[in-house]
Amino acid sequence: MYACSAKWKADWISEEDLVNILSQLAGKILPSPYGPDNIGLSHGLHFTGGEPFLNFELLCNALEIASGFDIPSVFVETNCFWCTNDETTREKLLTLRGKGLKGIMISVNPFYLEYVPFERTERAVRIGTELFGYNAIVYQVEYYRRFKALGIQDKVSFDKYLQLENRTDFARNTEFFIMGRAPYRLTEELADLYPRYPAGSLVHMPCSPPFLRDWHNHFDNYGNFIPGFCGGITLGDCRELNDLLKNGIDLEEYPVLAYLIQDDMLGLLQFTVDRGYMVNGDGYYSKCHLCVDLRKHLNAVDGFKELKPDGFYSNLA
């Protein structure tokens, strides 16, 4: 979603901004249907990244701040790189639980497998379940099941993984959004797995999930209010969230947002073509791919205020 990689600077969110943002989110976040001490993928508050365990002290402080504002169903998302042994894993999770953490979401997919030995993921699942029970979530469990069935323990490159199982089964029974860096970094790998479509066949498709929604939105370390999974777009400064919700958005000041909020992808396409964009004759994997490609061009030529942060676009390819 966010085109995160080691190329990005470690621009950690400040504690001042954490207090500011979380104080305004307090009272607006719905708990899990099973109560505030339980978690759900699109309920409560989750700390993610990047990788939040790269700055464990900041993660601890963030949990204390969230707990101080009585924010419900707080959990953390991780790729498990830090789970090098049982003692370290248990110690860190116990520390976080003591600071208000209600659960953990363990990310599992072939892209993390390239960099994180699978035995660390298995350790996180085992100890996370021991400490948090049903509030230890594996996303995506289908890949976890496959990796175990293949007997994987170490790191495996994406190309090697595609050799280990049927290439056409790569995304079977999983969620795989062709967005963010994926269309640019996996061109060869995706070529024989997914068709491309001409821009004209995508512009009338609705955004799925919806561009504007009152669930599972993100707030980044630069103060951007990100709609859903749409990295590289900001609805405004979440450090001024209450004012933003009260006064709304002046769409005349944010033309790209205007097209997206009105679900006018055809208008956005023409708007971008008028500014020098060349439609890709090979087509696009999805509406998300088309959208991010249009925004990438607009960010380069005009620097629209709603296309933030700049690092998202410079790290796509």
Keywords:
single chain, 317 residues, alpha/beta, 15 helices
Give the arrangement of secondary structure elements.
Elements: H1 15-25, E1 45-47, H2 56-68, E2 74-78, H3 86-98, E3 103-107, H4 110-113, H5 118-132, E4 136-139, H6 141-149, H7 158-164, H8 182-185, H9 187-191, H10 199-202, E5 218-219, E6 225-226, H11 241-247, H12 255-261, H13 265-273, H14 287-301, H15 310-314
Parallel strand pairs: 1-2, 2-3, 3-4
Antiparallel strand pairs: 5-6
Helix pairs in contact: 1-2, 3-5, 13-14
Short description:
40% of the residues lie in helices and 7% in strands.
Fold and architecture overview:
This protein is of the alpha/beta class and 317 residues long. It is built from 15 helices and 6 strands. The two termini are 13 Å apart. The chain folds into 2 domains: 31-176; 178-317, no CATH class. Helix 13 (265-273) packs parallel to helix 14. Helix 3 (86-98) links the parallel strand 2 and strand 3 (103-107).
